[in-house]
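[audit] Reproducing an earlier prediction to check determinism. Same input, same settings, fresh worker. If the tokens differ from the archived copy the diff job will pick it up downstream; this log only records the rerun itself.
[audit] input (271 residues):
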Amino acid sequence: MPVWQTAWELLSDIRLRDIIDIALVAVLLYYLLRLLRRTRAIALVNGLIVILLVFLLSSVLLPTLYWLLKYLLAGGVLALVVIFQPELRMGLARLGRGGVLSGALGRIGVQRRQSVINDVVEAAYRISADGYGALIVIEREDGLMDIIRTGKVINARVSVDLLRTIFYPKAALHDGAVVIREDQIVAAGCALPHSESPSLSATTGMRHRAALGLAERTDAVCVVVSEETAAVSLAVDGTISPRVQRPQLTERLMELLEAQEHEPGFFFWRK
């Protein structure tokens, strides 16, 4: 029988329900991997893939190892729920709030967005020159109400002078983070979750750990000014870029915040 005829027979057995089923599974896997990509859980996923490959190989060649792995993996589902508890909680939260209800800087217009970015960059480097630290969080699609509730409500227009005043060492709110939504400083003195990444150096400062911790859990953009080194860093998507220069920071913020304007979403679906 010709190959094309065999292929045609296989395709003819596929129903519309099967196509929808496969497409939904593919979409769910894609967003699961996309969610895990920005967290420390991706290393655990890689380990699980290795274990599954060994399990499949042992089922053919190594019966004793296969028997042992079969019983070990039986209780592995519960262990996975415990291990991935933070990631599962974040994923369910993102599914519930989606991208429609959150405030995104990409929705306020080009000129206002550019003004906010310029003010953030200018404030970061002025604070760096003044010799004190800062932690500025820009909300994107993931809502940050849990973070905002830990600080003091400001609800003031973003400006260089206001940011410098908030992070002045003798100011009451200088130790926490500022959260920006659209063109407003929503809150200051906010507490952020610290990163537990084993790749961090022991000398990594608390502001950098906090920025990376939030970037691992949400899609927020965090600008960090080190009080010790005066370096400006950028944390986003579970990674931190140290010692970012002014032109690179401006360009990167424009890329990150302009992208939202073209990514409307329905629940967790985004184009």
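[audit] rerun output stored. Observation attached for the diff report: Residues 97-103, 262-271 have pLDDT under 50 and may be disordered.
[audit] end
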